[in-house]
Amino acid sequence: MKLLKSFKIRDKIISDKSPSYIIAEVGVNHGGSVSKCARLIKEAHKSGADAVKLQIANPFHSYSENHPSFGEFKNKFLSNESLEKLIKYSNKLGLAMFATPGDLYSLDRVAKLKMPAIKISSGLLTNLPLIKEASKKKVPLIISTGMSYLKEIKDAINICKKHQNKIAILKCTSIYPAPIQTLNLSSIGELKKIFKIPIGYSDHAMGINAATFSIGLGATILEKHFTLDKSLKGADHKISIEPKEFKKMVENIRDLEVMSGSKSLKPTKDEMKNRKFAYRKLVSLLNIDSGEKISLNNVGFKRIISKQKGILPKFFFKIEKKRARRNIRRNEILSLKDFK
């Protein structure tokens, strides 16, 4: 199946030509509380996110009981009924809501809830059986690539594209928090060259600089951990950003998109208006007698307000050492007809 360069998640287009798709990664920062999750959704909307993403895992299917992740997920369960209400609330606000399913049991839950996309986390990249089943659900897949080799990314994509052509890849460094020297944001461009599908960035660095810079380096999707309070207990709170900081990040990204503009190498409409005031015209510096030779001693280049078109400085080389056809007064705007 040929992979698409552009696709939709709900009503938002994911492509290089569209505004960046910004995901507030709530994960399990809701702590199992429906009301807290609803507040996170509301604040994500107010902060400018396009989507909210949860992590849904059955700890008994996903982790051994002595693994730290087991404790992280054990008491943070949201029922299907609760998730249905939260999805409706998200949709009402104009946000997409989807999840990372940590196991096949949770993948079935996500599918039954009709979430509009499925996220494959970095820790699931080598779980090809789960990825294969996820690709059959007929919704776009977003795949993070922390800790992985290129061959592993290709293996995941190859098993996906047998059933699914709406796939995006996120560059990611799976260190919590990730020092800036480990981010390798230049590889966003390399992934774009290799796969020719939407490429984004999942950020685990502190602050918002890396997230913003990733958009300038070609990311079309951004995933950033989101919390109401960084000081809360839990693995992800400390690497998350709060609503005020998230809003600032989104504002910076939207400004960057406007600044980036197009690849056009020509003046803007407003610049065209300024040309006649900004560019210099060829003028006489002195009175020049008819027959006198033209040189840099008697002509120069000035900004001058006049409706007369005049000659751009580049044409000086055509008239240099030629002789004046007429007597020319000081500060006249010159034309090619003035010279023999």
Description:
- There is one protein chain.
- The chain is α/β, with parallel strands linked by helices.
- The protein has 2 domains: 250 residues, Alpha-Beta Barrel (TIM Barrel), CATH 3.20.20.70; 70 residues, Alpha-Beta Complex (Type Iii Antifreeze Protein Isoform Hplc 12), CATH 3.90.1210.
- Helix content is 34%, strand content 16%.
- It contains 12 helices and 12 strands.
- The strands form 3 sheets. Strands 5-4-3-10-9-8-7-6 form an 8-stranded parallel β-sheet. The chain has a two-stranded antiparallel sheet with strand order 1-2. Strands 11-12 form a two-stranded antiparallel ribbon.
- Helix 9 runs parallel beside helix 10.
- The longest helix has 18 residues.
- It is elongated.
- The N and C termini lie far apart (70 Å).
Question: How would you summarize what this structure contains?
Answer:
The chain is of the alpha/beta class and 340 residues long. It has twelve helices and twelve strands. β1 and β2 form a beta hairpin.
Helix and strand arrangement:
Elements: E1 7-9, E2 12-14, E3 21-27, H1 34-46, E4 51-56, H2 59-62, H3 68-74, H4 80-93, E5 96-101, H5 104-112, E6 118-120, H6 128-135, E7 141-144, H7 150-160, E8 167-172, H8 187-195, E9 199-203, H9 209-216, E10 221-225, H10 243-260, H11 269-278, E11 281-284, E12 299-302, H12 316-319
Parallel strand pairs: 3-4, 3-10, 4-5, 6-7, 7-8, 8-9, 9-10
Antiparallel strand pairs: 1-2, 11-12
Helix pairs in contact: 1-4, 6-7, 9-10
> Share of helix among residues?
25-40%
CATH class of the largest domain: Alpha Beta
Low-confidence stretches: none
Through-space gap between termini: 70 Å
